[in-house]
Amino acid sequence: MEQMKGRSLLTWLDFNANEIRSFLELAKTVKAQSRRGELTQRFTGKTIALLFEKRSTRTRCAFETAFGEEGGHPVFLSNQDIQLGAKESLEDTARVLGRMFSAIQFRGFKHSAAETLARYSGVPVYNGLTDDFHPTQALADLMTLEESFGDRGKKKLCYIGDGRNNVARSLLVICAKMGVDCTVIAPESLTPDRALVEKCTALSVASGAKLRFTNNLDEVEGADALYTDVWTSMGEEAKKDEREKLLRPYQVNQALMDKTGRKDTIFLHCLPAVKGEEVTADVIDGPQSRAWDQAENRKHTIKAIMLATL
Ligand code: CP
User: Fold this and answer.
1) How far is CA 73 from CA 34, 49, 69, 103, 204, in A?
2) Residue 289 alpha carbon to ligand 1 centre in Å
3) Would the CA dihedral through 42, 3, 180, 166 be positive or negative?
4) Residue 134 annotated among the catalytic residues of the structure
């Protein structure tokens, strides 16, 4: 873990498979410690700035509770509270925060803002979601998949819906790195962008992951997990009607779950969900859903990331 100290997590593109594996193993240890009720104070004397340009339930609560219960001091700062590129350059904000905090979490719009914070603060920066990537989510997703199917052997995950969003893009990267077969089922206009597809296809050669991009829902056959996300991401509200029309055929309902041909296929969702749109209530609230474990795993994985890098 020593080689992790001081590193930022902006995208899993910056980490190799062994490093991602070590984060996952640490997250499993952290979860087991939590289940046993062990109290540890591994962030005593440390501080983290939690910068939020967008709303959050899981990410904010995961960072805040994971850091605080280990004796650290998290400070929540929305863009109503501090200068985030308004009245003061982001570079200067980063320099100041880096003098006062041990680490920074950033949730916002531009991925370049997370990169700027990492470049100028001198402390680890964690991407809590940008328009491009949501890496802490993807680690929790992989942990949840492994809790159901183990960490060995081939696994197939199908992501269905808006294949261009930050969740789909992060899943694609982590699957390509970790050898998980990933099929993105999306209308052509919402297929992941070419540059990322090329990067992930190159990565998949080493890991053995099969990556597929299609609009054919029959491709869910044999899948271990079906995964979806909201049809309209934060910041895209103007596209709501258009997305609903385009993605209605891609709703994850029981008929689609059954189409996998397996009774043990699990359902995953990063949440928040719009029940009745991208997923039906009977699926997300039903026995095949692991969405609530997945939400809990955000905390364990985020704690592991901070433990390894701080
Ligand atoms: N999945 C996720 O990032 O949830 P929040 O938007 O509530 O943080």
Assistant:
1) 19, 9, 9, 11, 39
2) 17
3) positive
4) yes
Given the residues 60, 111, 134, 290, the one annotated as active site: 134
Q: At what angle do helices 135-149 and 166-178 cross, to 10 degrees?
A: 50
| Closest atom of ligand 1 relative to the 271 alpha carbon | 1
Task: Please confirm, yes or no, whether 107 is among the known catalytic residues.
Answer: yes
Single-letter amino acid, residue 231: W
**What one-character DSSP code corresponds to residue 38?**
-
Reported as a single tens digit per residue, the pLDDT across 80-113 is 888 887 889 999 999 999 999 999 999 999 999 9
> What are the percentages of helix, strand and coil residues in the chain, rounded to 5?
50, 15, 35
* Pocket probe mutation, ligand 1, options 57, 105, 130, 133, max atoms within 8 Å of Cβ: 57
Question: Which pTM does this prediction carry?
Answer: 0.97
Strand (E) or helix (H) holding 160: strand 156-160
